[in-house]
Amino acid sequence: MWSPTEEEKYGVVICSFRGAVPQGLVLELGETVQILEKCEGWYRGVSIKKPNVKGIFPANYIHLKKAIVSNRGQYETVVPLEDSVVTEVTATLQEWAVLWKQLYVKHKVDLFYKLRHVMNELIDLRRQLLSGHLTQDQVREVKRHLTVRLDWGNEHLGLDLVPRKDFEVVDSDQISVSDLYKMHLSSRHSVQQSTSQVDTIRQRHGEACRMPVPHHFFLSLKSFTYNTIGEDTDVFFSLYDVREGKQISERFMVRLNKNGGPRNPEKIDRMCALFTDLSSKDMKRDLYIVAHVIRIGRMLLNDSKKGPPHLHYRRPYGCAVLSIMDVLQSISEIKEEKDFVLKVYTCNNENEWCQIHENIIRKSSTKYTAPSSNYGLIISLQLLRGDMEQIRRENPMIFNRGVSVTRKLGFPDVIMPGDIRNDLYLTLEKGDFERGGKSVQKNIEVTMYVLYADGEILKDCISLGSGEPSRSAYHSFVLYHNNSPRWGEIIKLPIPIDRFRGSHLRFEFRHCSTKDKGEKKLFGFAFTPLMRDDGTTLSDDIHELYVYKCDENSTFNNHALYLGLPCCKEDYNGCPNIPSSLIFQRSTKETFSVSTQLSSTKLTQNVDLLALLKWKAYPDRVMDILGRLRHVSGEEIVKFLQDILDTLFVVLDDNTEKYGLLVFQSLVFIINLLRDSKYFHFRPVMDTYIQKHFAGALAYKELIRCLKWYMDRSAELVRQDHIQEAMRALEYLFKFIVQSRILYSRATCGMEEEQFRSSIQELFQSIRFVLSLDSRSSETLIFTQAALLNSFPAIFDELLQMFTVQEVAEFVRGTLGSMPSTVHIGQSMDVVKLQSIARTVDSRLFSFSESRRILLPVVLHHIHLHLRQQKELLICSGILSSIFSIIKTSSLEGDVVEEVEMMVESLLDVLLQTLLTIMSKSQSQEAGEYVSCLLSLLRQMSDTHFQHLLDNFQSKDELKEFLLKIFCVFRNLMKMSVFPRDWMVMRLLTSNIIVTTVQYLSSALHKNFTETDFDFKVWNSYFSLAVLFINQPSLQLENATPAKRKKILDKYGDMRVMMAYELFSMWQNLGEHKIHFIPGMIGPFLGVTLVPQPEVRNIMIPIFHDMMDWEQRKNGNFKQVEAELIDKLDSLVSEGKGDENYRELFSLLLLEKIEQETWRETGISFVTSVTRLMERLLDYRDCMKGDETENKKIGCTVNLMNFYKSEINKEEMYIRYIHKLCDMHLQAENYTEAAFTLLLYCELLQWEDRPLREFLHYPSQSEWQRKEGLCRKIIHYFNKGKSWEFGIPLCRELAIQYESLYDYQSLSWIRKMEATYYDNIMEQQRLEPEFFRVGFYGRKFPFFLRNKEYVCRGHDYERLEAFQQRMLSEFPQAIAMQHPNHPDDSILQCDAQYLQIYAVTPIPDNIDVLQMDRVPDRIKSFYRVNNIRKFRYDRPFHKGPKDKENEFKSLWIERTTLTLTHSLPGISRWFEVERRELVEVSPLENAIQVVENKNQELRTLISQYQHKQMHGNINLLSMCLNGVIDAAVNGGIARYQEAFFDKDYIAKHPGDAEKITQLKELMQEQVHVLGVGLAVHEKFVHPEMRPLHKKLIDQFQMMRSSLYHELPGLDKLSPACSGTSTPRSNVLVSHGPMSPESIKLVHRHSPLNLLGSVRHSSSSLSSHTSSETGNLVILTDSSVGETAEDMYHMQASPSTSSLSSTHSAPSQMINSAPSSARGSPSLPDKYRHSREMMMLLPAHRDRPSSAMYPAAIMENGQPPNFQRALIQQMIGPCKPCSDPNLSVAEKAVPAAPSSWSLDSGTREALPFLSAHVGSILAPPVPPRSLPHGHYSLHFDAFHHQLSDAPPALPARTLRKSPLHPIPASPTSPQSGLDGSNSTLSGSASSGVSSLSESNFGHSSEPPPRTDTMDSVPSQAWNTDEDLETPYLPVRYSLSEPDVLESLKSQPCRSHSAPSGVIPQDTMDPPALPPKPYHSRLPNMENEEGMIIEDDDKHRPLHRKVSQPVSGGKEEQARVAWEHGISEQ
Q: Which of 1891, 1911, 1889 is closest to 1960 using CA atoms?
């Protein structure tokens, strides 16, 4: 049967229980349980963690604890009966455990380990506390340690501060708020103290001055390592003050044996001392620890002859010092000992031994010798603080080691009453002795004895130092051969007090002979008594003693013989008639000095004091003796305090009239002496004396009389020192008065009671009189009043012994009331007055309620006045908090209604006013004090108090003012956070008081300010307060730990809900006035509804319906509510408020309410749009606050921005998000996107002068100015993003504006900018980005990505793999899908994240530009990848059955075209796909595209080799040919043949006939191309690779024969030459054999001719082959002077390699400038993709052909030198490109610039070259000088051919992109003009006309325009600067700065001009070439280019210096040029 438990109520789980039984309760080890019932070994109950779950568990798993059960039964509560500190430790450790593990996770390792250590300590201390074996002191100590550690941990973990009192947690209900505030402060203070180990003591007003803390040094000698002495030693340690030059402590003595260990074996590890009682002042002195080492042995250490071995002398050896100033810092910081090594220095001259320590300190290195090694005395030091009792308690280990207490020489700062001490310190100073007829000086030893009056030697009365026992005789150390020794050795004489009188000291002087016998011979003595005849002790001074002669035979047995003699000069003067014929003769020339210092509590050296104590002996001198008491030192007085007081009162009784005033003054002097901190400890002695020993029963009358007399005189006297002293002594004077009266009363059974009372009354009248005097004019009077006020509160307790509480209270009230009000006294008096009031409030008198009723009004009156004037606020707050503290304590016992009423009336208003003032200055310390006072007062107020308060207001205005004030204070309280974040107890109590107060005040507000008297201000203030209250961080229980939440809810409930109900009911009370708060309160109320408390939300959300309803009634719509709600929602959600539940609840509650309304539809649409906005805002916030990547944040922002623009049309919010988005782009360095984003704002603005207000970071300015600023910024961002094409229209727009305003300066600037952008487009390298399509599938993605697909613009160099990595790192939870198929529903709806990523190809919109032949590739490149909305992706698949034999039959392509919502680039790097279209490409169409692409690739490559653009290495071509030919053997195009030329296929697909024909043509073309390729291959192939070539030829023959049956006519074509041209192979077919001459010419110029024909036709931009390569730009004859290094400067730009196998990307590979760094796959990839080398060979165009190859000169069948040089240059080794990302192919294809344009005739001429190209390939030879006359021949020939051509055919730009400059002619800077190629005159120029960027030579003025023909720029020499930078900008605009003027020329346009125009001659060339600003366009006729000798073509030229060339060559060139013109 289960029965309820009686005793077993509470227990701890000691073994985890899994709960594996029915109803079993799962329990973890350490959990606590509350037991309800029991049954046969089982309990039923709940775990404290989860109190709602009941279950059963085994009884033996539970350790029972005693507990208190309250409210027994169903709802009983159980509190364990254990020490509250233990309970707290348990709870805290459980709380910490969770946080501790989190520290590890967050990598806060340091704190993790520290906390672990502290937790272990807590567990250990808790165990000690629970053991119950500790004494009370130990319990206190353990609790102190526990609380320090708890507070430390709480602070470091950011938990709440726990207010404590005596280690116990305080209950906030039991104490006043002021006290609670102070406890928080002191807890915080003790936490900081425990953290920083700082001894700071907060002084509070009225507190007696604190005891000075004594310091102590613990010194321990570890070893003496540098002990090579070989004899025993004594080491003396003492403290030495350098400035005063004296020791300040006794000596600590250590005796060591010759090995350096202690002589006494018991002393091992115990050689330690405690130097005690150093004051703070001492610690600031320049102290040193000085160690003197005295050896004990033979006279001379190293001389064994001197002195016999058995005699031992004390001899000086060495000294060591350590500065305490230097080590104080390091030993203060640590709690344990720290070691130091002290070097022992030896003295150079023994005579200076007494000064050795000073010499070492002063570093007088000549006086001492440093030790040879670094070792010495090893000591450890530790600094201890506190009195000796405390030190003994805290450091028992030190005292267990037998520490020697080493005292200060004088008394410490504080003399303790029980401290009995009687020490005489004697210093042996010096002696002067006669030589005694010897040649050498004596070795003198002094022996000292203490003898008693009867002549016996006192035993053990001489101490050389602490640490060793006292002895009976003292032997000084011996100084060798010194008749005037200086010892300076201090000896302590601890002589018993009873033997002191009559004792004397005797000093015997011996000479220590070092002869064999080594005897010590006595030769004299001296003596001195210790006490004088008058009873005073030997004075502290130097005493020069007489030396008396004697010898060994002299006897001292009869000491009376010499005691009668004078011992010193003073003694002699005192008794001059001493008989001289005595045994002992004084040696007049010899003297001996000692000094003494007495530290005794029993003996005095003061004559005056002795006279007072024996006053009866001098009756006539009493007045004088009393007067002299003031001059006796304090130490002497306190030593004899009781005796002196007894004497004084006896004197007073003896003759009151005569001595009264003097005794009074003496008494005052002594009382005030005890106020000194040094003697403060003697006050208890005084108290004891008054209570127990004082016997002056009549004294009170005289004391009252004197006191009154003093007070009455205070108005007249100028000097009032004695009056002030009497005032200061008031407390003890009253003690004496009261005790005296009690004694009298006892003796007389209460006689004269009335007289006594009236005399006290009169005395109080005198006190009031003093206080009421106006002291502003007299400073002395102020001090008198201050002294009186300071002492006044101390007399209350004495008065209470004689009078009733009411009587004393009346005395006090009268006195306090007599003070002038604060207006009439100075500030210093103000402070004193308040301090006096404060001490009154703190006194015992005030704790009686009857006295409080009398005193409160006067106290409150003074405080009220001060608060009104804002004076002395800190003291006032202290007084108030004391009052509240007392009232709180009293309220727990009795009734305090009356007192609280008084305080409310007097203080409430002024407190509020004060707080408002303080808060406006934000003085947090004072604010905290006053807030706690205000809260204390409010908390004490009951209903009746509030009722009275509200009823007492005279008018509504007053009430309104009061309400506004108190609401304002409460608001500030919450806003300013007066209490720190971790003062949770304080903050919760504050909230509780506020909510209670508000409940009282809201009814008054409703009652007085609702209907006709509605007051907006008060209501608004109220609502703001309520809103702030609910939003307080300390009330957000959701963030608290479960335990803390439970604690708060149990104590206060959820105060937010209380306030929300209050707020809602007040809102309802408003009625029609609600409209005043729309829209003002929408934001605040919205903030309240966002609090994550369901109840608050349910209460508050309906208010919005109410607001909509009221606005609808008033305005017919609720636009204001709508606008405000949306505005505020944005800012609140971004602050982290709100969640999904809120969104749902908001929508649910409002829709439900709106359903019944007439305006339902607008309402519903509004709520829906707000809900959708919230969805986006929550997404945005989650992105922003998480560690999300830029992409997500940007996507989220775009999404939200568009919502604001399109759906709810909030322009301001839209603009805000534009700027947020722009900032994100800038952070991610997406400059183009940032520009597009800002453009959105720019487009909203007009070019008008409308003024705009300040907004975001924009100042207030006109719309025009803002738009202009924006345009400039956008242009700047486009420039940074290298999107100049987008910037140019804006430049134009600005230019139009500037022009219309005639702002020519800005116009010039913007035009230059525009020009610069055109330059940049042509000159700067831009990388083409990759594009990737990303699908986000699954419900786990954020709202704006879910199940959507996007296309993203990749970063520079980003390939698919890198992009995929980046996306997966942005979405770490996501799974990458491996196939490109569209996902099915199961994936779309699953709770996961799937990413599908693949690369896509852009489909440009602007095809016109791309089809224009003249447009340079640099420009086209931009349009290929910008403004793109459509993208393509191809996926191969098999349709129908897959043919095992030939899969090409069924290989289809699925082509997906994606259309985006916006074109890229735009405001984001990625946009959503709006539409996708799928097209299927049939196998046949696919085959056509594949073959066509391969043909293009081959053509491109072959033409590069033909035109010497590929250097030397033929591998690329070999591989490519091998790939095609070999594949043909293994299948290749034969597969297509089988698949599509099959009769069955043709029959089945009659519609494909045209396509089949097209495929056949393409195959034929491929065979032709391969043939030409093999021919080129043969010419270039390396001898070792010949077998490969032969294999290729054989396989090619096989391939042709395999195609023969299908394609008749192929057999006619030879691989080398073919006579007919099919439409597709026009380029590679020649018209006839080439003559040698034409070979020469073609070699000179044909690379360019080929290039012209190599242009792609405009139809080449079909959708599949969307790749466009630039022109091949070839190095011509003029570039032979270059080394391979220049080639490197003209590297082709690599192309992007596509990641999809079927699409291709554009390439600028052949002719653009070197890429800075652009990734590209390695060679095989390159050629796997069809993209790079395609399409160089254009479609056929019929043109008129002209034979333009005249005869060329041959030398012995070899090409001439310049050709050889060219060939060598062309096929020489290519310098590797610096770009690590370039593929092999790219590194192998340098491009040379050219400005040639070809006419139609040249197209057909090229194949001629291909047929005979082999014949011009010669082995590489270095270039030689050319014979004259070479050029004219071929120029002529050229002119004849070209003159018939039409003058201006459409130009074909060969040079499409700016290149790195090519070296110019070294001699002819102007050669571009001088020698313009006359062959060009008939053709349309393309190079120069399309490239206005070329710069002409170095002429300093713009050269003349040559209208006859195109001027071709010369080549600039390449200096080594060129070699360093891979790219230099090429300028072209004439608006560049003037600096460049000399390097520029005007752009030339091509014209057909009259012949015979000869341009001017050139200037002299400059000595060195200029920096390469010139475009390096090769100059076709540049003769000098040929003659540069290249010694070693493999070695780069470090500096290419212009070499002089004979003038004949230049002349010859000009003749040729003129000749060309005349021909024309």
A: 1911
Cβ–Cβ < 8 Å for 870, 830 = no
Q: What is the mean pLDDT of residues 1387-1392?
A: 86
What is the pLDDT at residue 656? 64
Highest-scoring range by mean pLDDT, 84-93, 1056-1065, 1127-1136: 1056-1065
362 in Cβ contact with 383 (< 8 Å): no
The C-alpha atoms of residue 504 and residue 454 are separated, in whole angstroms, by: 10
Cβ proximity of 359 and 349 under 8 Å: no
Question: Which residues are within 8 A (CB) of 1663 and not within 5 positions of it... i.e. 6 or more apart?
Answer: 1403, 1432
Q: Which residues contact 159 (CB under 8 A, 6 or more apart)?
A: 95, 99, 153, 982
The CA distance from 142 to 133, in Å, is: 12
Q: Count CB atoms within 10 A of the CB of residue 1155.
A: 10
Whether the Cβ atoms of residue 1383 and residue 1346 lie closer than 8 Å to each other: no
d(CA 686, CA 271): 41
Cβ atoms of 956 and 1013 closer than 8 Å: yes
DSSP state letters, 1015-1075: -HHHHHHHHHHHHHHHT-GGG-GGGS-HHHHHHHHHHH--HHHHHHHHHHHHHHHHGGGGG
Inter-residue contact 1199 to 1216 (CB < 8 Å): no
By 3-state DSSP, what share of the chain in percent is helix, strand and coil, each rounded to 5? 50, 15, 35
Q: How far is CA 146 from the centre of its chain?
A: 32
- Position 1998 pLDDT exceeds 80: no
Structure tokens at 1828: 């004259």
pTM equals: 0.57
Asked if the model's pLDDT at residue 323 lies above 90, the reply is yes
Question: How much is the pLDDT for 576?
Answer: 54
Q: Write down the number of H helices and E strands in the chain.
A: 69, 39
pLDDT for residue 1508 is more than 80 = no
Q: How far apart are CA 1056 and CA 1060, in angstroms?
A: 6
Task: Say if strands 1394-1403 and 1375-1376 run parallel, antiparallel, or are unpaired.
Answer: parallel
- Main-chain dihedrals φ then ψ at residue 1112, nearest 5 degrees: -60, -45
Residue 1820 above 70 pLDDT?
Answer: no
Cβ neighbours of residue 1683 closer than 8 Å, sequence gap 6 or more: 1990, 1993, 1995, 1996, 1997
pLDDT of 1898:
42
1194 three-state secondary structure: helix
Tokens of 1310: 């913007």
Contact 1765, 1986 (CB under 8 A): yes
Beta strands in 647-722 (DSSP E): none
Three-state DSSP string of 755-814: HHHHHHHHHHHHHHHHHHCCCCCCHHHHHHHHHHHHHHHHHHHHHHHHCCHHHHHHHHHH
Asked if residue 1531 lies in contact with residue 1564, where contact means CB atoms within 8 angstroms, the answer is: no
Element at 67 (helix H, strand E):
strand 67-70
Q: What angle do CA 722, 725, 731 make, to 5 degrees?
A: 140
Whether residue 215 has pLDDT greater than 80: yes
Whole-angstrom distance, CA of residue 1325 vs CA of residue 1317? 13
Structure tokens at 1492: 């066509």
User: Which tokens in the block code for residue 1924?
Assistant: 């360093």
Interacting residues of 1156 by C-beta distance below 8 A, sequence separation 6+: none
Residue 1540 per-residue DSSP state: H
The per-residue pLDDT for 42 is 93
User: Does the N-terminal peptide bond of residue 1819 adopt cis geometry, omega within 30 degrees of 0?
Assistant: no
Note if the bond before 1465 is cis, omega within 30 degrees. Answer: yes
Nearest residue to 772 (alpha-carbon basis) of 711, 698, 849: 711
Tokens 């957000």: give the residue: 1036
What local confidence, expressed as pLDDT, does residue 1191 receive?
A: 67
- Residue 741 corresponds to which tokens in the numbers above? 């009266």
Return the residue matching tokens 């709202």: 1343
Side chain identity, residue 1724: P
